[in-house]
Each structure stands twice: as C-alpha cells, then as structure tokens.
Amino acid sequence: MCKASPLSPSSIPTSAKSTQTMITLTPKNKMAALSCGIAFLNLSLFALGGEMKNADGTSTKQNRIEIKDFAFNPQTLTVKSGENVTWINRDEEPHTVVSVQKQFKKSTALDTDQEFTITAGAPGTYTYFCSVHPKMTGTIVVKKS
Fold first, then answer.
1. How far is it, in rounded angstroms, from Cα 88 to Cα 65?
2. Residue 55, CA distances (Å) to 46, 58, 59, 137 in order
C-alpha cells in the first residue's frame, strides 16, 4: 500500500512551483503601445469629425457629395455661405460637375476617387449636373452664414 505523506514547499519539484513573471516594457513594446493608442485616438476623431470647429469658432463641416451609381448623393445639400463643398467620384466612369447657372466653375472630368471642391458663394439655390451624363443632377442650397 502506498502511504501519502504531507508535502512541504521544499519537497515540491522546482518545475512544479508556480512562478510569477514580471513584464517589463522594452522600447519595442512601448512603441507598439503608443502606436495603438494613437490609432485609437485617430479613429475616435474620425468618427466624431463630421463637424469640427476652428480655433476662431468657425465651422469646418465636411460637406461631401459622393458620385456613385450614376447619381449625386445626397442629391440636395444645404450649406452656409463660405463653406466648402467637395464631390468625390466613386464610379468607374468619369463624371463632371457643372453649375446650370454658372454659379461656380465647372470641374474637369473626374476619374475614380478624384475630388472637386468649391466654396459656396452667395445664398441661393445652386443646381448642377454631369455634362457627360446630363440626367445626373443635384442641388446645393446655400444659406447665409
């Protein structure tokens, strides 16, 4: 028969003893942690950045019109006088942005992912179209700032 005897800490084999590991931050680990933190902050700012304020309190709202599936989206955009409006072409076909009443200069043909930006002028309604695909139309309503 086998008799069990009480174990003392000195009788436990060294490989079976629990060990605590202390983690020290090496320069490489510190850089990785810093990079993760910066990436997280950038994503947070991007998510919250729809409308931001400059130091002087003026707005820098992102007024973007996406050109996709042969349509301007949103089809109607309301902005304040002096704000920028940017179109970006997400189609594989080239498109243009042309003001019906020549309220802003027309764009060149925009290839995929190219952008065109104007600054909204006097209050009013600005209608525009694509000269390559004239059925594509949109409207910008400019309010007093």
1. 6
2. 18, 8, 10, 36
Q: Token pair 């983690």 is at which residue?
A: 23
Mention every residue, 6+ apart, whose C-beta is less than 8 A from residue 139. 75, 76, 77, 125, 126, 127, 128
Which pTM value belongs to this model? 0.60
The model's pLDDT over 40-68, given as tens digits with 9 standing for 90+, comes to 665 555 555 544 444 544 555 689 999 99
CB 97 within 8 A of CB 87: yes
Contact between 110 and 141 (Cβ < 8 Å): no
Q: How many CB atoms lie within 10 A of CB 142?
A: 21
C-alpha 71/C-alpha 130 separation (Å) is 9
At position 24, the amino acid (one-letter code) is: T
Task: Mention the CATH class of domain 64-143.
Answer: mainly beta
> Are the C-beta atoms of residues 111 and 131 closer than 8 Å to each other?
no
Q: Model confidence over 123-140: pLDDT tens digits? A: 999 999 999 999 999 999
